[in-house]
Amino acid sequence: MSTEEACDLLAETRDYWRRWVGGSRYKGRWREVVERSAMTLKLMTYAPTGALVAAPTAGLPEQIGGQRNWDYRYTWIRDASFSVHALLRLGFTDEAQKYLFWLNERIREARDGGLPLQVMYRIDGSPDLNEEVLGHLEGYRGSAPERIGNGAAGQLQLDIYGEALLSLELADRNGLIPPYEGWQRTAALVDWLCEHWDQPEDGIWETRSGRQDFTYGRVLSWVALDRAIRIAHRRGRPGDTVRWATERDAIYQQVMTRGFNQERRAFVQHYGSDILDASLLAMPGLNIISPTDPMWESTLRAMDAELASDSLVYRYDPKASPDGLAGTEGTFNMCTFWYVQALAQAGRLDDARLTFEKMLTYASPLGLYSEEIAPTGEQIGNFPQAFSHLSLISTATHLDDLLDKEQC
Q1: CB 398 within 8 Å of CB 86
Q2: pLDDT tens per residue, range 84-104
Q3: Is residue 61 within 8 Å of 72, Cβ to Cβ?
Q4: 252-258 own/partner pairs: CB under 8 Å, 24+ apart
Q5: Average pLDDT over residues 39-56
Q6: Mean pLDDT score across all residues of the chain
Q7: For residue 321, what are the CA distances in angstroms to 36, 209, 335?
Q8: What are the phi and psi torsion angles at 118 (to 5°)?
Q9: Exposed, middle or buried by CB within 10 Å (0-12, 13-18, 19+), for 373?
Q10: What is the mean pLDDT of residues 387-391?
Q11: Rounded CA gap, 368 and 135, in Å?
C-alpha cells in the first residue's frame, strides 16, 4: 500500500466517524466522553445482526492471579437491551432498531420452542455457548483457569425479561412500534413470566453458588409486566392485562415486604438475607419506588456506608455473600454510574456530579473502560466493557437533565 492510499483510507475513516457521531443530539456537559462511549458501543456491534458484544475479549481477570476469568464475546440480553436506552437518548435510532430486530428473533425462537429466553447468545443468534477450560494456557498474568464459552448461558436469570421489556417499551415511545407477530410473541413471553417469576434464580451477577430469591430479579419481573401493560394500553394491543396487573401487584407487595430487611432498614440482595447489593441502586430509576421514600433513603445510606469506597461502588461483598468462586474483585463501573443516578434522583446533585467526574478520571487515555477498577486504580476485567460505556451515557444524559432543571 502506498503512502497516498494509506492517507486516503485514514481520511475515509475519519470522515465516516465524524458523520456518524455528528448524528448525536447530545450537546451536554460531557460531550467528548459521551461521544467516545457511543463510538465504542458502535464498534462493539456486529453489523450483520445488530448484536452488541459484552466485550470483545475473554479471560481478562476481575482479580489479577484469580479465577474470575470469563469469556464476554457474546450478546447478553441484559447488556444489549440497556444499550437501546443509551442509543435512543443520543438519537441513534437505526442502531437501536437493528438490535430490536435481533431481540425479536430471539423471542420468536424462545416462544416457538416453548422455552424461556436464554441469558446470552452468539452474535449470530445461535445459543451454543458451552464453557470450556483451556488448561494449556496460564492466563493473563497467571490468572487461571482460562475459559472460552460461558456456562452462565444456561442459568435462569429473571431480570432479563424486565430489561428486554424496558427496551421494547422505550422503543415504542420513540416510534419503533412492535409489529403484529412481534407483539404476539412478546405477550406470550409475558404470560410465561406470570407463571415463573416466583421462584429462586441465579441472579444478575451470575453467581455459581445456587439459586436464591434475588430482589433485583423480582424488581425487573415487576418492570416486565408493568411495561408490557403500558405498551398494550398505549397501542390497544391484545394481551391478558388483567392477569399481568394482578401478577405485577403481587410482585410489588412481595418486594416491599420480603425484599426489605427491617433490621438493616435496607433492600437486600435476596429474601431472608441482610446483604446489600448495588444492583438495587436501579430501583428508583425503574419507578418501583420513589427516591424520597424513607425505605429507599435508608437503603441508599446503607450503600453509602458499605458498598461505596471513595465514590467507587462494589457490587456486593463476596465474603458476606459467597458466590461460588474464590478471591475478590474490584469496584464495578456500572454500579458506580448507577450510584451517581441514585444520588441525583435523591436530590444530592453535588455529590452525584462529583462522583461522576471522579469516575471519569479512571478512563484509559482513549476514554475506554473495562468492567471494574482494582484497589490500585488500574482497570480489570474484560475490556472495553459495554456495560460501563452504556451506563456512562445514560448517567451523563440523566445528570445533565437534572442539573439543567436546577439552574432554571
Answers
A1: no
A2: 999 999 999 999 999 999 999
A3: no
A4: 252/222, 252/288, 254/198, 254/218, 255/215, 255/218, 255/219, 255/222, 255/288, 256/295, 258/213
A5: 95
A6: 94
A7: 36, 9, 17
A8: -85, 150
A9: buried
A10: 96
A11: 30
Q: Residue 371 corresponds to which cell in the numbers above? A: 468492567
Would you state the pLDDT for residue 406? 80
- Identify the band that residue 328 occupies on the pLDDT scale cut at 50, 70 and 90: confident
Question: 189, 107 in Cβ contact below 8 A?
Answer: yes
CA 254 to centroid of chain Cα atoms: 23
Q: Are strands 45-46 and 51-52 parallel, antiparallel or unpaired?
A: antiparallel
* pLDDT over 70 percentage in the chain: 99
> Residue 313: which H helix or E strand, with range?
strand 312-313
Determine the 3-state secondary structure of 347 from DSSP. Answer: coil
Residues 6+ positions from 370 with CB-CB distance below 8 Å:
60, 333, 379, 380, 381, 382, 383, 384, 385, 388
Q: How far apart are CA 103 and CA 79, in angstroms?
A: 12
The span from the CA of 147 to the CA of 115, in Å, is 27
Predicted model pTM: 0.95
Distance CA 158, CA 219 (A): 9
